[in-house]
Amino acid sequence: MKMNKKVMRVSLGWRILIGLVVGIILGVIFYKNQGFTTFAQGVGTFFINMISMIVLPIVVTSLTVGIANIGDLHKLGRVGGKTILYFEIVSTVALILGLLVANITDIGHFVNLKGLEAADISKYVATAKVASHNGLGSIIMSIVPTNIFAVLSEGNMLPVIFFSVFFGLGISAIGERGKIVIDFLQAVSEVMFKVTGWVMNFAPFGVAGLIGVTVAQLGLASLKPLGLFIGVAYLTMAIFIIVILGAIAAVYKINIFDILTVFKDELVLAFSTASSEVTLPKLIEKTQKLGVSKGVVSFVIPTGYTFNLDGSAIYQALAAVFMAQAYHINLSIGQQLTLLVVLMVSSKGMAGVPGASFVVLLATVSTIGVPVSGLALIAGIDRLVDMGRTAVNVAGNGLATLIIGKSEKEFDHDKYVEYVASYKK
Question: Any stretches that span the bilayer, and where are they (predicted)?
Fold first, then answer.
């Protein structure tokens, strides 16, 4: 008697969840075990590297083909303007929400800093010093690549987007002769999505390794002193997704819970790995299946990975006020408005650096009188909060793509309904 293969197959989301649970269990069993930590870190890094291998080829091919299909510089400018404006408004709302929750809960006054163990933040300090000397002008100038192959090897997203946009426009401008290039890049894109499917089969092992390292290094007991901060951070992120993003989605007649259902595998993966990059290929694929045109998807999602970091914005505002409260620094409304402006600017300028959220905090807390050394006290749990804020970033970018697509009438409602229904069966 043969069993139905479809029945026997466990979905990727469940396999990732199983990997997450296994990783936590192994982390508890092998707490502070250097051999396990080294092995698990190797497994996790192997998975992240495989994803990194396919991200840029997908971005370049999808974006170039998408822009070539748009072909209209005026339309592209309109899409780009809408996208950046939307990202700026929503990320600012996220910052304001973080500030409000921090003030309402007043959680910093419940923490005894003397009981916390300081973590090593020297690598973040060095990065913050370098990044803080790069003003907005330097950031804008760095968008234009002098050598496209160099920026591809370095993985710098913004210069890659800039080149791909102009390359796509150039292909469109030469008309019929450019069709052979579009066909080639489309084929490469399809190949890379196929490779993505193979790579994702390793995701449960990568998740188990990465979460196992985190638990083995920190231990569950180390969460107690800052457990309140972690809990409030996750509650704020949940409010942002359900209330703020839910309201925005409702305006465009989109059900936020439908979006969360469709992207559940990507959200679990982003949460487990604390890396939004690992979800980019599938996010591009799914938003197209949800009915958004390739041109809009290819532009909005890669841009969002630099400019639309809602979860990071919540964390930065929440952590900055939390630390001020813990040091008994009473912030006036004027000081908090200044903090809001500084975070808005610095978070965009440092989005591409490693550990960007923590680096932004290092570069901004001094403006409200919090000693930089104080952030070493919450650095130990940064990875745990990073998991949540990464998932929020992914949810925000997925919804943003649908909204920009709808606003541009580059959205197929029938495809959306059909694809969502397939996830509810």
Answer: 12-31, 46-71, 83-104, 157-174, 195-220, 226-252, 327-346, 358-379
